[in-house]
């Protein structure tokens, strides 16, 4: 039951809210560490190609489905084809899983922001500080609660008074912070005890220049899966979020123009985030520091801030404030999707469903927090790595479910109802869809094949062939 009049006021509100969903922890936390792990420039090249092709196709599909059906993801696919109603329930699983851990990561960011706000942050520099914090039984839960409460409040306020209003404030501030810190990072230099000098521009070269040395088919598929899972996470596609946001878009809004702006906004922020983090980490910690993985911003960056001297604390406060903004906008979009879907499913008011989803998010987030202490375990993943509770949820949602959902969606749109079903919606207001040919070819022939390959890689079946 969608509330009457629940919609964005116009194109700008929609673009900023959708960009707010897309621009989040995925861009500023996930993108840089994956880029560093997968060879810098090579990962960046693969990612940019995927955004211009797969990202454009999947984003267009989700938003157009939402606006044309005027339904959230739970009912939209059944509206297109009755037999495909199950696909709506599959998409519902993704934000359900993501919400279990997103507020936990948000709590980590709040913790670090508070540390630098209250002190010089030297306590955060020790290698064991982050591990000690996340493995404690109380502190992570307290900071998670702060982040979750703020998220729930914005969603409770609704589309116009909550999501759109706060996106218009947060997104411009986020961009200014990213650009400012990124430019500052490129001016940095550091000399080791042995006389070795590293500069921000050298780090930028590592970030931008692809290195194909020793590249194998299996390694390329691993990079491709990382880049595609990042695309899913970053653009919020194949998880019902953009379908739900699309259902709020008024008919007079030019979809193609808005989609291009969202795509450019999201990719630009991811690119700047990589330029912000990777050169700075390289300057003070070398290539070894870039290999920190998911803990890159929580372990490596505090060392960078300390090495900056007095200005480091100010940069740290600005950085974690920026991270908080980004995490909040994405968490709001995930919770909004769950609330909107459950309002339809259970025929309850927004207030009632915010309370129910809030309780669900709280209980599951507490379990994720405990996954680093009393519920700790190591689970083997198909890619050969081991994971604990948060990583398992992330792997199932981003590397397993999203390629599978994209595969099924491409079959539905490309072969069951036909690409014209989408392109006609994009052209509704007489807008020229310049990439219509690319869209039709990709959704029918390229997306299904690549998604099938990625699904096989994520499940481990590809190891039989490569």
TrEMBL record:
It comes from the Bacteria. It holds the Pfam family SNF. The keyword Transport applies. Keywords: Membrane, Transmembrane, Transmembrane helix, Transport. The chain crosses the membrane at residues 40-65, 86-110, 138-157, 169-188, 227-248, 269-286, 311-332, 353-375, 395-417, 438-462. It is found in: Membrane. PROSITE patterns: NA_NEUROTRAN_SYMP_3 (PS50267). Its main location: membrane. The keyword Transferase does not apply. It is a multi-pass membrane protein. GO terms for cellular component: membrane. This is Transporter. It comes from Mediterraneibacter butyricigenes.
